[in-house]
Amino acid sequence: MNLGYNHALSKGTRIESYEVQDVLGVGGFGITYRAHDHTLNQTVAIKEYLPDGLAYRLPDGETLTHRSESDVKHYKYGLDRFLDEARTLAKFRDPSIVRVIRFIEANGTAYLVMDFESGDSLAQRLRARGVLREDEITALLTPLLQGLRNVHAQQFLHRDVKPANIVLRTEGPPVLLDFGAARQALGEHTKALTAMVTPGYAPFEQYHTKDRQGPWTDLYSVGATIYHCMTGMPPPAATERVAALYDGEIDPVDKPLELAGQSFSPLLLDIARWLLAPHAKDRPQSTDAVLRRLKSENGDADWQRYAGRSATGSAAHDVPATQDARAAAVGPEVLKTVHASLEPHIGPMAEALVRKAGKQVSNVEELTQLLARFIPSEEEKTQFLGKTRMLNTQELDQAAQVAGAIQSPPPAREEVSEHAIQRAKECLATYVGPIAGMLVRKAAKRADSREEFVRRLAGEIPDEVSRAEFLRAINTQMG
Predict the structure, then answer these.
(1) Sign of CA dihedral 295, 297, 303, 309
(2) What angle do helix axes 266-275 and 134-153 make, rounded to 10 degrees?
(3) Fewest CB within 10 A of the end CB: N or C in the chain?
(4) pLDDT digits over 241-259, tens only?
(5) Alpha-carbon span 172 to 117, nearest angstrom
(6) Which residue would you say has higher pLDDT here, 27 or 229?
(7) Domain segments of the chain: what residues?
C-alpha cells in the first residue's frame, strides 16, 4: 500500500468477498484499488466513491461521512450519479471498454468492481518513448473509436479520454478506463466544474454545462490524445487556445503539428486537426465520421463541411484580425449588455471573450455574430442573437459618454502586487480549477485596490461556504 494515500483503505480491508491489496490511482472523485476476489480467485479493480472536499473517512478506517451539513446534498447527488454510471457501464460488452462486474453500496459510499486490466497505460508508454509511430497510433485509434461508438449509441459519454485512462494490453485491443460522466455531473452540481476536467484534453464546451456536450466532446479528447502521441506533449488547454485566437494569434497547436508533419501522413494530420477544432460544430459529430475518414472515404459530409471551411482559412483561424480603426467602435455599455446576454450560454469566459471581440469589430452585428460562434447549441445561439439584434450602438455609446461626463475623477489606483497575484491564483484554483489564472489576471487589471481585487475573486465562487473559506485563506496568505 502506498503510504502517500493516507485516506485510502488499508491493505487487507474486506468489502464482501474482495480484499484490498494496493492503490492503483487516486483523484478528486475517488480511489481505485487492486483487490483479490476470494470467491472467483481472481484479481479485480475496485473504484471507491470519495469526492475530494466533500467527505472524509471515520476512525474505523472504512466508513465515509460528509464534511459538513452543507455538503450532504452534494455528496448524495454525486453518489447517485456514481451508481447511475455503474448501472450503465455494466451493460457494455465491448473489448475496448473496461468491463464492470458489479457495484456495492456499503460504508456510507459505493464501490465499482471492474476487470483488472494489466499492461502499461498510454501515459506510461509516452513517458518512456516520447512519441508513437503512425501505425501504432492508428492501431490504437480504430478500436478506441469503435468502443466510443458503442458508448455513444447508449446516449452516454466518457468525458475523460486521455492517455492515463487508456491501458495497452499485451494481447488484444487497448481498453478505455475511468469514465468521467459522474464526476462531470457532480462538478456541474457544485459549480466547481473546472476542477473536474483535465486541461489539455477537455474541449471548451466541457468547462460549461452538459447540455452543450455530445460525441464531439469525447472526440476532441481523442484528438488531444493523438496530438500527444504525435508531438510528445499534451495540447494547451482549450481556454488558452480560444484566448489566443481572439487575440489574433496563431492557434498554439499548429506549430507542433506542423513539425510533427514530417513524420506522419497528411491523412493523420488532417484527422488530428479536425478532432481538435476549438468549436464543437467544426468537429466530427460522430465516431463513424472519423472511422470513414480513416479509411479515406472523402465523401463523408462532416469532413467535407470542415474541409470546405479550411480551404479558405481554417474554421479555427477565421477570427478577424485586430484593427486600430475598430478599437473604440463598440462602446463599453454595448459590451456590458452583450456580456450579460452571452454569459448564461457560455459561463465565466464570456467577459474576456466580449472584451477581446469588441476590439476586432466595427459594429454590434459583427460583435454578436463573432461571439455566437462560441455557443455550440444552435437553439441558444438563436436566442442570443435575438436578444442582441435590436441593440442601438449610437444610443448606448451616447449614454456611456453622458455617464462618464458626470462622474467625478476616479481615485488613484492601488496596484495589486505580484505576491498577492500569485497567492490569489493558488487559493482560487482550489475552487474554480484551471481558469483561476485568467480570473486573477482580469481582477488585477480592473480592481482599484487590493480589497476590490479580493472581492472580485470571491464573486467567482457561487457557493457561500466555499466563498467564505476562500476569503479566510486569501486574507491569511496575503497578510
Answers:
(1) positive
(2) 40
(3) C
(4) 888 887 788 899 998 988 8
(5) 11
(6) 229
(7) 14-115, 120-311, 324-406, 418-478
* Cα angle for residues 460, 27, 64 (degrees, 5° grid): 95
Q: Helix H segments across 347-463?
A: 350-357, 364-372, 378-388, 393-406, 418-432, 436-446, 450-458
* Cβ within 8 Å of residue 95, ≥6 positions away: 143, 147, 172, 173, 175
The pLDDT confidence band at residue 460, using thresholds 50, 70 and 90, is: confident
Q: What pLDDT, on the 0 to 100 scale, is given for residue 372? A: 74
Per-residue pLDDT tens over the stretch 392-417:
544 444 544 544 444 445 556 677 78
Sign of the CA dihedral running 222, 227, 230, 232: negative
DSSP track, 138-183: HHHHHHHHHHHHHHHHTT------SGGGEEE-SSSS-EE----HHH
Over 90: is that where the pLDDT of 39 sits?
yes
d(CA 406, CA 384): 32
Q: What is the pLDDT of residues 69-117, one digit of tens each?
A: 777 888 888 888 888 888 888 888 888 888 888 889 999 888 989 899 8
* Bridge partner list, 33: 23, 46
Say yes or no: do domains 14-115 and 120-311 share a fold.
Answer: no
Q: In what order do the strands lie in the sheet containing 42-49?
A: 14-15, 18-26, 30-37, 42-49, 109-115, 100-106
CA separation for the pair 68, 179 (Å, rounded) = 27
Query: Nine-digit cell at 474?
Result: 486569501
**How far apart (Å, rounded) are the C-alpha atoms in residues 11 and 62?**
11
CA-to-CA dists, residue 397 to 10, 114, 325, 364, 371, angstroms:
65, 61, 17, 11, 20
- Residue 401 pLDDT: 52
Q: Nearest to residue 226, comparing CAs of 169, 269, 192, 285?
A: 269
Instruction: Give the total residue count for the chain.
Output: 479
Compute the C-alpha angle 123/127/128, nearest 5°. 120
Give SS3 for 121.
strand
377 pLDDT tier (thresholds 50, 70, 90): low
- CB distance 196 to 208 below 8 Å: no
CATH class of 120-311: mainly alpha
For 96, the grid coordinates are 475496448
